[in-house]
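Its record is quoted verbatim for completeness.
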Amino acid sequence: MTADHRRAPADSHDMIRVLGARENNLKGVNVEIPKRRLTVFTGVSGSGKSSLVFGTIAAESQRLINETYSAFVQGFMPSLGRPDADLLDGLTTAIIVDQERMGANSRSTVGTATDANAMLRVLFSRLGKPHVGSPNAFSFNVPSSSGVGSITVERGQSKAERRSFTITGGMCPRCEGMGSVSDIDLSQLYDDAKSINEGAITIPGYSMEGWYGRIFNGCGFFDADKPIRKFTKKELDALLHKEPTKIKVDGINLTYEGLIPKIQKSMLSKDVEAMQPHIRAFVERAVTFATCPECEGTRLSKAARASKIHGVNIAEACAMQINDLAGWVRGLDEPSVAPLLKTLGETLDAFVEVGLGYLSLDRPTGTLSGGEAQRTRMIRHLGSSLTDVSYIFDEPTIGLHPHDIRRMNDLLLRLRDKGNTVLVVEHKPETIAIADHIVDLGPRAGEHGGTVQYQGDLAGLRASDTLTGRHLGDRAALKKKVRKPTGRLEIRGATRNNLKKVDVDVPLGVLTVVTGVAGSGKSSLIHGSLPAGAGVVRVDQGAIRGSRRSNPATYSGLLDPIRSAFARANGVKPALFSANSEGACPACNGAGVIYTDLAMMAEVATTCEECGGQRFQASVLEYTLDGKNIAEVLAMSVEEAHSFFVVGPARAILGRMRDVGLGYLRLGQGLTTLSGGERQRLKLAIHLAEKGGVYVLDEPTSGLHLADVAQLLALLDRLVDAGKSVIVIEHHMAVMAHADWIIDVGPGAGHDGGAIVFEGTPAALVAARSTLTGRHLAEYVGA
């Protein structure tokens, strides 16, 4: 990108104005952001970028939009407080495209999450032979059902008549549109030697002390005091299979439902990865999944699969790689649906443009990475007719090869050129370079950040003395001497996903970087092919398991030595210093907030008045350690706590967290507030204490400022020098240049990838310039 892509400054009256912003660590920030321009927000992790962009600008836009709805509609929405700022002016409707993984609903696919599947269904309903019905006939989420409804009869009749009708959907009747069938091990559901009242049922959550006890004892379908093995066939069928049935117990209307349909609805309809750990363990223990033999995993009925266009049915179309499907759609010459074909083709082309052409429309959304999910959401907006809105992106280049970053930049500029305001939180210099306007926050993270260091154009940022300005031109040099391997891990005949019987040796005792464009097969090669039992420690960006009470202190094990230190200093029990145990505020049970369930309305959280959000009983806060109470310690940043705990296991844990670049995190900060990169670095800090010999990291530079990359490289060097083998899946050029060995997967994505296109030293890759990666790395190091 060149300066020609940047627009002149906006008129001073055509601005989004923020005065006195104080969300989180912001220190009365004042900014003016030009509308209909591309503004990039920079600064180290924790400097306040997200607090300004998402917590202030986007939050206020959303709050104002909600206030335009009727009081009835507002009742169904969460209550949004006004961001802490003196003035917010000139806001437009904000559309947030962030890195949150898409819902793990097993019925959601890439096709259903965009308009692509809906358009394909219309296409097949119009052109498919034989004709089998409306677009619903091709939907795996719509069952076939009959009913009676009102229809308006013409020929002068004014009243509606009631007639029978049939809605025909495309759902496979065997698997109900799931694509798989389950076989449940009954021995994992109950102990047949016991009665229900003796605790026979072993499904998580089935306690006889609550409603389940009243329902089982009052339903009348079996004797809850009789061992299950003595149930009659009718009683056992009622226990296991009975459909929802209304019953009355002690004058209260309740619903009884058999164990198996209950499990299918409450557990098996959810993505396994999204379950709480104990639920997931139960499902993995009790349930076996297999491809549905009726629909062969397509989720669709036989009729839907029988209808074809030029020999292709809708299941086959959705299973195509999207760039192939786009070519197939372009080959359809049907004037009767020309506008539909044009729109569908443009949508599919947009997938290719954002580097997702390797996906298929039947890919479950729960399997997408954060970066893939963000780019999938972007598809909807590229074809939108909306203008003069604010599109807000959170590091849209995450997971992208340098080759794909250029295409992403083109798309951001396209959104701007349609008359929209584009706000981007980003670290990559390639995207900072195309900005019309830049807001740099800092100077550091946490309490050492939260101020505007620079506002203006790229040339001004380069000339500034800010941390970002100083590091914008950083280029890592190729190593003059690389380490020699001490051994190797053999991968032979790897065929997972798109891999084409790959044979490769991964060297041990060195820093190995595995690279290639998004979808080339990097993760399939490393995560799916490394031999088991090789002492491998995998550290990825996946969600951290835990409740909404979890924080870095609890997750890392840091809270245990902290509680022990407080207990020793005050001569009391350690349990007092846990907000999840005896020290919890009784009003909020240690949550710090009161969650109010408003039935069909959204749950509302309000700060607990009893403890003021500190989570602990007032008596517990009277105990101190070196002048600080437990709430004050948990409010510390990692950096502050590292200085506070001068010796002992707490300092060791804090030191590891600081080493991975998380010194700005607060010990009591909710895990749900962490980005994917922060989650990975927190996991890495914990794994640093383990004995594993091989560390596998998945894009550890995600969310890292340019100035922090050198710190990460130093950490990787320390691991290797300590005798570890480090394998990094990464796109960042500085990490590639620093590697001892590079494995480049490609040459393209999807079925155009899956092969090893280079293996050797970075210097050899640059010299050969035989791959996309090699050419970009050569440009980066100035070779």
Observations:
- Residues 220 and 247 are 9 Å apart (CA to CA).
